[in-house]
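Example 3.2
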Amino acid sequence: MESMNLKENELQEITQLRHRLHQHPNRSHEEKETAEIISTWAENHLPSFDIHTGIGGAGVLLIQKNKTNKKRIVFRAELDALPIEEANSELSYASENPGTSHKCGHDGHMAMICGLGLLIEREPLKEACIALLFQPAEETGEGARLVLKNETFEEFNPDYVFALHNLPEHPKSEIMVKKGSMCMASTGIWLRLRGASSHAAEPYAGTSPLPVINQYLDIWQFERTLNKQLEVSTLVHLQLGEPAFGTTPGWANAALTIRAETDHRLQELVHELKQKCKAIAKVHGVHIEFETTEDFAAVHNTDKEVDNIIEAAKALNLQYSIMESPTRWSEDVGELLKNRKGGLFCLGSGTDTPVLHHPTYNFPDDILSTGVKMFYEIAKRTINQSS
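Structure, written as tokens:
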């Protein structure tokens, strides 16, 4: 099976597109400008695709016009950027939106599935209907659920969903994947504690939430060391009363991120957290409330589709490895993969590339062609495999 390559002008097209997307980033639920860039580009370069907008918000869905009743395959990328200030001011295409930048590589992911569209224009895959999904609000874990409620996406009803995520600190173009749980499930939890303030000279007269916070974190951090790889708890925010030197704190807000290998185990950990916090708060006479946010389902890769991903890497003579454990970060594509075949794989973006979400991170252009070719090879193998 001969592999397809981007022509030089096609690679230049998606590189320029990546730079434009990097220059005009939008945060989750605010991706209007990004969606317009994608839609306009598709109008000019992908005439064999119908363009559907407003998918789960600002999302864009490009569907081949062949309308075949055979296999329907979605390749997904993310529209949104992060609330992080661009630190790479020397770039000619540095972010022009203050406080917002592409520090997770979504600009590169979008450019790669656009490159897949170019290959399909030149060499159509006639035994399937391919769709390219540009999903909104991935970073908050909300976008996939919104896409699933969209009438156009429901009507297309894909049989397969594939996606990739670039991964720094690994050699460029290395492919990493595993069967089953690929990315951890996660959720954010707010702990809101209410006691009573007092004069700082008489702290015993108040009810401070500080002992509750201290006691719980000591217990939780110790227990999580028993299973560091598959369960992770991270304190991401803590606010304790007002910054007034004459007053003891009477309230506190704490934000935690909880991660686990499976959705079921995550639910167990959240229940455990709530029960222990309630018990500790009761001892100290503090009222406590909980709020969950940014829920991510675990990403589950189906076996045969992972085999196809590995075979695609072999066909392209790429270095590949089978991961022993799921990634500790979460990915919203997990919702799209529920009850569907498909998978997410990681694409190495360089041993010297800063980690994801770092202010100096910048997606490396020289792995764009690898992602495009991987997607095309995966599509061919998915079409040719028995159901």
